[in-house]
Amino acid sequence: AQNHLLxxxxxxxxxxxxxxVEKLIAHLKEKxxxxxxxxxxxxxxxxxxxxGQAISEEDMDKALKADAVIxxxxxxxxxxxxxxxxxxxxxxxxxxxDLGLFANLRPAICYSALADxxxxxxxxxxxxxxxxxxxxxxGVYFGEPKEIIELGDGQKRGIDTQVYDxxxxxxxxxxxxxxxxxxxxxxxxxxxRNVMKSGVLWHEVVTDVxxxxxxxxxxxxxxxxxxxxxxxxxxxxxxxxTDNLFGDILSDSAAMLTGSLGMLPxxxxxxxxxxxxxxxxxxxPVHGSAPDIAGxxxxxxxxxxxxxxxxLRYSFEMIELADKLEGAISSVLDEGLRTGDIMxxxxxxxxxxxxxxxxxxx
Length: 362
Ligand code: NAI
Ligand code: MG
Known about the structure:
By secondary structure, this protein is of the alpha/beta class. It has helices at 13-30, 45-51, 57-65, 88-98, 122-125, 166-181, 197-209, 223-232, 244-255, 302-314, 319-334, 352-361; strands at 4-10, 37-40, 68-73, 103-109, 129-135, 147-152, 155-159, 186-191, 217-222, 239-242, 265-272, 279-285, 337-338, 348-349. It has 2 domains: 1-107 and 263-362, Isopropylmalate Dehydrogenase, CATH 3.40.718.10; 129-256, Isopropylmalate Dehydrogenase, CATH 3.40.718.10. Helices cover 38% and strands 21% of the residues. Magnesium ion binds next to α9. Magnesium ion binds at residues 248, 252. One of its GO terms (biological process) is L-leucine biosynthetic process. NAD(+) binds at residues 76-89, 288-300.
């Protein structure tokens, strides 16, 4: 089928926020705005309870066949003591590995209504909309050698190795340029070529790939300067492409310019399919299963719905619909609706379903 999704709600608030995605899909179909078919599956603790695995082979198979996977969250105290190989996170790691998701997309969007809650001045963050594209499967987190060796005399040496091959930089650069084409057509590539050989290669390969994207503006920025500029004047950026380590730090830092964990979406993309050209993709909120509020209809569904907006934008080229959904989130916040995690004075406190339904109605 066309536009086929696999919904994996997972554990804790994962099921509560995914219910709002299901309502949205039904609404889009009813209004003739978009027609998605979907399967649902189990992942994390709920999959362990059902099959003794963090994700079943059957659900992995569905994930591989889907046009996009929509993932809630996994984990919780109930599964803290299950064997390591079948712990809830193993389900997510298996999905990332088998789908080959090497590109992690983390937007930092500032909704006007929440600009006051930012740790930066309102005028610096209001209207902020940047996208960090982080390389997810290479670099210093995976390079060999990786070890601690004994040097004698009580001295030890900790070694991690930053390794990047041309193909790894080439493919992440293409993701960034492709994404930039659906946005403001500007990319900043960030590395430290002044002190790192992998940075020299990064700069060289990104510059080379850029020849295929003459319509996109490319700037290079050293990663330390990038960190500073993100706090000094974040709105100068549109897309930032960077390696695994710098991306980890820059994306967490950029995301927190804008507010609560319950607001942050993400996407992970793989290589384009040889025949269809479509990339494997998984969309998920940045937050976890929030066991402290699970089952109380208190969870903020915005990170989940904003992740679905990313799916519309990046997997299905439904740019207008993605804009509408993000716009609806923004206006519902303007109207003063708040779940507990983003509650502000003078605003109206609502449940997960009330927030989801208000966004869908808008
Ligand atoms: P968490 O993100 O689940 O919660 C941290 C805090 O933020 C909690 O106080 C929670 O109530 C709040 N929060 C998170 N999302 C929210 C939402 N949508 N609406 C309102 N409040 C929200 O992180 P924590 O507590 O460290 O981990 C809980 C479980 O989630 C653990 O088992 C952890 O391993 C797992 N986890 C799973 C992730 C995933 O599925 N990708 C990511 C991070 C953690
Ligand atoms: Mg991190």
